[in-house]
Design a protein that fits this description.
- The strands form 3 sheets. An 8-stranded mixed beta sheet has the order 1-5-6-11-10-9-7-8, with helices on both faces.
- Helix 1 runs antiparallel to helix 6.
- By secondary structure, it is an alpha+beta fold.
- The chain is 39% helix and 21% strand.
- It has 2 domains: 238 residues, Bira Bifunctional Protein, Domain 2 (BirA Bifunctional Protein, domain 2, 2-Layer Sandwich); 90 residues, Rossmann fold.
- The structure holds adenosine-5'-triphosphate (ATP) and magnesium ion.
- The site of adenosine-5'-triphosphate has 18 residues, from strand 6, strand 10, strand 11 and helix 12.
- The site of adenosine-5'-triphosphate (ATP) has 18 residues, from strand 6, strand 10, strand 11 and helix 12.
Length: 420
Amino acid sequence: MSVKAVRGFSDILPSEIWRWRLLEERAREVLDGFGFSEMRIPILERMELFSRSIGEETDIVEKEMYTFADRNGDLITLRPEATASMARAYIEHKMYAFDPVAKLYFIGPMFRYERPQKGRYRQFHQIDVEVFGISQPMIDAEVMAILMHYLSTLGVNGCELQINSLGCPRCRLPYKEDLRTFLRDHSLQLCPDCRRRMEKNPLRAFDCKAQGCQEVMTDAPLVEDYLCRECADHFAGVKAYLESMDVPYRVNPRMVRGLDYYTRTTFEVIAEGLGAQNAVAAGGRYDHLIEELGGPGVPGIGFAIGMERLILLLPDQAHFYGPSLFIAALGEEAQREAFALSYRFNLAGVRSMIDYEGRSLKAQMRRANKFRARYVLIIGEDELRTGKAILRDMEKSKQQEVPFPSVFKEVISRLKGGSV
Ligand code: ATP
Ligand code: MG
């Protein structure tokens, strides 16, 4: 039996790769333009980095992490998200010593042991954006504006930005207490998971998909009624700055996000047409994370975009990355000519292709068609004798003779402006 890929882990095939490149290239363009710097983090971290930051009572840490002991017996985890690693790196390299403000991003795979389905995989990819060192609501609005701008440059419309504030530990304490009391009063209608978690992490009942829990939660107390003065002002500021940039949003007072480190602003981008896995990006503020991980008292805010889900939203455009030039040659001498010429084109960065197998001219033209070559250069015995090749424009179905010495310049100049 042949060996297959591990469940939930996918190959990205050449026919798909242009979508990934588009997402990555556009992300770098937009983020570089907004003053962000790319960095790269390791695939593995010590397990406690995630259990300490994301929180023990969360889906990720409870059941989704790929954790194993390495040969030394140290527990290590395949990163399930990037924020904790980015914060660790910021602390470890004392990036704050130069300036507390760091605007960073990272693109790469994440790993979570979940049930694979549409929009949910065990290896998936994120574009992760983090800003350390700014507490003002301006930056909350700015990162959301950048996210929405990025989506629109990809032609992805029909997304809704939903925002909420979870307050700070000070206002969340009495809120959690009241929510716990409420949940205890309705515990018979709750699913076993929520009943088990309600003492330690009552907020998670908002995320539960069980029908009974959802019914109960429609009447649950909301965090917006508990925000302290500073948190309420911060949230008002975020909304005002979003409005000043004409970024549409909707307040969703039931969005709580599944990670422990969030404080104040949280947000999600919900897309139409993704089915149950409809959050294409999510993030929030984490004002105590850096300190809790042993760094200075520096606030932070960030988000992550799910690339697989974003790809499902890309407008469907035919895209085939075929060769710019196919050199069809007949006869041994012509083939040698084609080989040398094609190499010269490749050195100049032109996607040029030849047939190595000495097939008939007809078969070579069929291949040029199959691979959707933009131009075909035909070199047969006649052409060798007259010192001219035939250059065929496959899009326009027009051809002309070009003397050998001018072939290289002619093809390059025709491709110039278009993609080579
Ligand atoms: P969900 O509620 O869908 O499980 P989440 O709250 O666990 O999402 P985050 O940790 O906030 O997700 O990650 C940010 C984004 O990464 C999500 O909005 C989603 O687009 C994407 N994402 C998360 N988990 C997966 C996965 N298993 N497969 C594919 N994409 C994912
Ligand atoms: Mg999840």
